[in-house]
User: Fold this.
Amino acid sequence: MAAAAAAAVGGPQPPQAEMPAPGLALDKAATAAHLKAALSRPDNRAGAEELQALLERVLSAERPLAAAADGEEAAAAGGGGGPGAAEEEALEWCKCLLAGGGGYDEFCAAVRAYDPAALCGLVWTANFVAYRCRTCGISPCMSLCAECFHQGDHTGHDFNMFRSQAGGACDCGDSNVMRESGFCKRHQIKSSSNIPCVPKDLLMMSEFVLPRFIFCLIQYLREGYNEPAADVPSEKDLNKVLQLLEPQISFLEDLTKMGGAMRSVLTQVLTNQQSYKDLTSGLGENAYARKSHEKYLIALKSSGLTYPEDKLVYGIQEPSAGTSTLAVQGFAGATGTLGQLDSSDEEDQDGSQGLGKRKRVKLSSNTKDQSIMDVLKHKSFLEELLFWTIKYEFPQKMVTFLLNMLPDQEYKVAFTKTFVQHYAFIMKTLKKSHESDTMSNRIVHISVQLFSNEELARQVTEECQLLDIMVTVLLYMMESCLIKSELQDEENSLHVVVNCGEALLKNNTYWPLVSDFINILSHQSVAKRFLEDHGLLVTWMNFVSFFQGMNLNKRELNEHVEFESQTYYAAFAAELEACAQPMWGLLSHCKVRETQEYTRNVVRYCLEALQDWFDAINFVDEPAPNQVTFHLPLHRYYAMFLSKAVKCQELDLDSVLPDQEMLMKLMIHPLQIQASLAEIHSNMWVRNGLQIKGQAMTYVQSHFCNSMIDPDIYLLQVCASRLDPDYFISSVFERFKVVDLLTMASQHQNTVLDAEHERSMLEGALTFLVILLSLRLHLGMSDDEILRAEMVAQLCMNDRTHSSLLDLIPENPNPKSGIIPGSYSFESVLSAVADFKAPVFEPGGSMQQGMYTPKAEVWDHEFDPVMVILRTVYRRDVQSAMDRYTAFLKQSGKFPGNPWPPYKKRTPLHPSYKGLMRLLHCKTLHIVLFTLLYKILMDHQNLSEHVLCMVLYLIELGLENSAEEESDEEASVGGPERCHDSWFPGSNLVSNMRHFINYVRVRVPETAPEVKRDSPASTSSDSLGSLQNSGTAQVFSLVAERRKKFQEIINRNSSEANQVVRPKTSNKWSAPGSAPPLTTAILEIKESILSLLIKLHHKLSGKQNSYYPAWLDDIEILIQPDIPKYSHGDGITAVERILLKAALQSRMNKRIIEEICRKVTPPVPPKKITAAEKKTLDKEERRQKARERQQKLLAEFASRQKSFMETAMDVDSPESDIPMEITTAEPQVSEAVYDCVICGQSGPSSEDRPTGLVVLLQASSVLGQCRDNIEPKKLPITEEEQIYPWDTCAAVHDVRLSLLQRYFKDSSCLLAVSIGWEGGVYVQTCGHTLHIDCHKSYMESLRNDQVLQGFSVDKGEFTCPLCRQFANSVLPCYPGSNVENNLWQRPSNKSIQDLIKEVEELQGRPGAFPSETNLSKEMESVMKDIKNTTQKKYRDYSKTPGSPDNDFLFMYSVARTNLELELIHRGGNLCSGGASTAGKRSCLNQLFHVLALHMRLYSIDSEYNPWRKLTQLLEEMNSQLGNEEQQPEVPILYHDVTSLLLIQILMMPQPLRKDHFTCIVKVLFTLLYTQGLVALSVKCNEDDRSAWKHTGALKKNTCDAEKSYEVLLSFVIRELSKGKLYHEEGTQECATISPIAWSPESTEKYLQDFCLHFLRITSLLQHHLFGEDLPSCQEEEEFSVLSSCLGLLPTFYQTEHPFISASCLDWPVPAFDIISQWCFEINSFTERHAEQGKALLIQESRWKLPHLLQLPENYNTIFQYYHRKTCSVCTKVPKDPAVCLVCGTFVCLKGLCCKQQSYCECVLHSQNCGAGTGIFLLINASVIIIIRGHRFCLWGSVYLDAHGEEDRDLRRGKPLYICKERYKVLEQQWISHTFDHINKRWGPHYNGL
Assistant:
């Protein structure tokens, strides 16, 4: 730190060396001790001065930081050592001085002992894993560190784990934030009494040293900050400074961790105003200090902070005349110097947006806000430290230090006040910042700790005007991005709105400030202050009005919009966060009657703001056409407070409602939104692009709906209940632009709407009316009823998972809580309305999650289409709900046909809203309903069933809610009222229903059919006139007149408004000149609503006179009506229900219905079809026919595909018992016939045009994972548990091969074993064949097709053209004929000796490779593919690289791998028998041909051929031992018999004869049996051996001695005793082998087990080569069944005897001779290597089936161990840790740290562990990822939560439990190698995982 540690700085003098530097370094401890002693004396002035001088020297910040970064300058400045040396030196000094001469570590320990803190206070940064328990939390922001959480008891609580986004701190021990019951063991309140008092001298030095240290840090910060020249802060420089200061800040951070005692010292230092003043005033003679102070002032000034002496200037605001500087000083306590505002700084950034700024924003009081924005005065270290923290944009280290101090209560208060004081400055810095995201997170990291505490928030609100500051700062922040609003009156509008395209809104920069505001409003005491303060409310409404009408959409009428703006995201987010969430926060405190006053305040200022808004946009009564904004926060504030007032505070609604005129204005914009929604869904806005649909969806989406559409609908309901109903209804139809449609005429003209949109707009209008009239969310439903209705609606659309339900049900958004109010009620409602469907697994299909599905009674009584329509984001969900409802009714037998949406009785209305029902009883609506019924009956303009449904729904609603005074209806029928209105006599629906309308005058185009009709001549003209008076009218004029009349009422006194309105209204209805002229026609109607309904009934049922009043049969119906609240059925039942209700409500209606039914109704006239209509009909018909043809074709194709699927695709069902042989069964066909799936031709495979099987070749290490113990290994979850691969099959085989290679000749070793346990090639097929030339052209076409996903054609990958199964090669089919096969299989009667000779001869013939045919080329190329499938290291085991022995070994091992894997797929044994699991899908036959063809190229020298050793006695036994110098061959008893079998068979010319096969098997069985005897003899101890030797010798001369195991065993023991095999077993061996009592039974069982594996493999081979079925059997008889199936058992064998394995032996040469020959080889080897000799003896094959690692029950155990575990390679904690589920290796996913040769660790591991297949569990996501070669896919999770759901990325953080079924599915796919077929979403990983 200091330029030179010894240089005392006293002004600008040259440094004098007073003390030699080395001595000083040496004696730090002594100096410290000396000073401490000096300071402990009562008179410590001298000591203090001495210490100050020393500190002045050591902690001088004079050496500039820049120099520290640059060596030369440092040297020039006289600083020795490298950069940073001085700083370290200074830190050392500080540590020494603090410890007062003792050791620093002991000092730390001593201080910790006095830690009284009962708070945890652990501070963490982003991405830390923390917990939140809603059961224990008081504040919604409460969080716990993992340690405190696990130490506390939270069983059964509602908690979750989360990844911190912005950082946070642990609240354990803080009873302000959480309940004490949740504290962990460490922080359960300690009483302060048992903490000893801190001794004075312990921290005395700290009190002297720390002020200097902190001052030094501040000087560095001042020094390092250079005001950026341009607008771009040089982040690089700032970061450089911060890096250099890292050690100092870390030192402070360590101090805070010493506990409470040290923290209180630090608090004293940081808040002491005196020491700050002394050190920083810059008045001393020290030039450096002065310079530093100047830098500080410059920084203040450049931050736009002001001197109070100057006039107050802010931006462009003219200073008001009476601004008193004193007021400002009083507020800021400003006495000293302050920074000066630099106005350009604020302005130049956004000069372009100047126009928004011209609007003077009304602020509550100029001076106050001014001072909030611009005055800062620092009085303590803490304040200046925070200032620099902000200036440097919240460096993480500083934030952590400041937060670490919070457990100290005194500090907490001081810091909070400081934070509030700097609030405006934080906002300015944030706005300028380039890293606003990081900065936002850091700000919230701090503020959430301060403002979540109610006590603290209240204190700051009272003492520091927190609310004023916050609201003002928010207002100023938004002011910088205002633009002129274009809503309504573009030219003259005075309204300004935020510009959603600005970075401030687009990047959510305002988020931290809004989030703080929401946070403090959640405290009742603070919210009450806010609601009482009128000035604040005015300012806040001002703020909200900036968002009113933002993001205006204008409908594009001509061109499609060029650039789709995406600003709507910003707009919706801003309204939700900045307006709605604070509103919900305030509403949560207005729950009781006592809070009425608050609501009155809000409503009052809200209405004022709305009035101002209407004035500003010059709004009169008509909204401007073709524009819509979805953002009306002022309307919504007003609506929500009204709703709360009526629901909770018992306020009288009328007392808070404005006059009629204001209500009319209020309703216009929300209604405009509803109409626009219908327009958008009718595709009238398509030219605006997709984003407008996005807005319509967001508006109703679950997170927004209760802050957007719900308040809008509620506000419209309020308006409707208070306005004239005729006016309201006509406004609705006018807004929806369908007035012209509502005419009786069959043709009409619509001036404002295209014909194709009319129907959907009419549906929209009616749907809106239905929702408006039947929705009760804010009109009387209780919270639980609302929750239930929401839940039912969501469940009816689709089955839902628990989490998606939580997400879809709009919470009552208590801001930021993440708490669903009453989540207990959530669970109880859920269990009441839904059944849980556990997750299901379709084998080979996708995995389902646990779902909730509606109970039957919900469909029966609660399904509510209105709620569904309101809540659907996608229109298809409405259809989905109806389909599900229909299915339920069919299934339960309640209704067979196509039901209509059911009619549901509503919750009763709250009395305040009774007026809403007047809408149903107004003439306008009745005229509309009558007209629509008539049009539907006459089939005009193809009106949809949906329209009829809504019309009937409205009629039914009207009957349900009819007025009571219907009793005296008969009296009032005549009377003068009748003529008053030309349509209906009164406004009551019940009486209007029966009113007959005779004639209607309509205006129609001259072309309309009505015009041609003559007026009814039968009546005389005068009677016609009288008729007209009573029953003729026009709908149009009615609507227009009514509006005119109503406007007149309102505008009586303001004549000027009249003039505006009149022309507009009249204008609206005159048709444009271009249309054909309208004439008036008179229609004869003579119907009433009732008669129309009855005719409709006939029309719907298709029968004449189908309606018969039910009460005529059963009069009871009228007396005790049993009308269900909820009814299923279609249109017919709906009509019947309505007529019944009408009859019930009035006797007159009943009478009229009966009358109508008595008259026989005339048939409905058939529709006349115009030419145009005919054309469309023809078109439809043609389409229909085409569709049918297509369906037929598809069905045919589907059935073909299905039959193929059944045979081919049973990937996971080994039970499939449809063996489909590739060869056909008819004996007369000589050749096998194949179908090519590409060209569709069938024919044999020939040499020139070979056919091939579609195959997938993949390298596999599954076999190598078999272990010999049944218990699967567990995934390690502690450091102790480790998995070692020593006991895997692969490891054991490896060890064996290398042991053989040490002692024997290499070429012979390579014939004695098989490889391919790791990296073996597995071949599988889907069973489809294709011509190889067709395949090549298919690949060519794939290569040219660019849109390929998931596989790489260049690597030869493709999907089968028929079944789309993944494949990468084609295996040629060998041309063969079946007849031949049959010949080969006939048993011959040759003796075994003859056969042996034949076999030897056939093997000896060199296999010339067939001539160059297409077939042979393909055989070669597929062999190449097979080799390239696996890595080189899995092919080359020879000591001499490139030796042909390698290829030979590899080829027969491929056959072995495939046989072994098939055995595993069958469950490890052949008991189930039957055809292969893949009768059709096995390709072993073809594979064998290819392998044999290649193997026969390598002939084995006849003398090395093991066949001779097996079948001949060799004379010259001793000659082999003579030549010592060369390594001997592998003794035949060390050979692996299965390998020998494959070698022998593949060396024969194909196709093989059955008797040769049997001969080979018999010979090999003798060897195998002998190996078993040898192994057994080694297993038993010396006594057993001598016993065996003895008993066997006695029986040696019996007739079948060669078939008695006892004789053979004793002979083996006798022979081997000649060598040293049994000798060197000291006592230690006996201990290891368990002393088994070898009874004849156990011996027999041992020998059978030893041979069984070989028999299984051989039987499989026989099954594939000769197509014989495998017999099924019990496990205990497997041996005998297989051996007889293989022809080892003589046919005459008697089954009565207990079966003995030896009876299968058939020795080709005398047994004892050949055995002694074999034993001789072993003895000659054990002479030298007895130990190895024993190890190499083949043990019985004891491998169990392969398994993945066993996983723990609870995911948390995995997560806690692995997510902080360090990687063994790079020793860092990986960002994305993963663990291999096959071997348990821990790897870094995507970690560049562990990359090798451009392969990341997971890919590398998948190659080493699984030969290209890796199965990894991603620790941080709980998901399993599969790597297969160059592709990967996300498989899903095997851990599910309590509701059967995955939690990918642990977003919800609920406890997860293993799902055993899923894990089994995963393991099954791994073993059966079907990842490629079953998982669909693959992508390339480019080695980057």
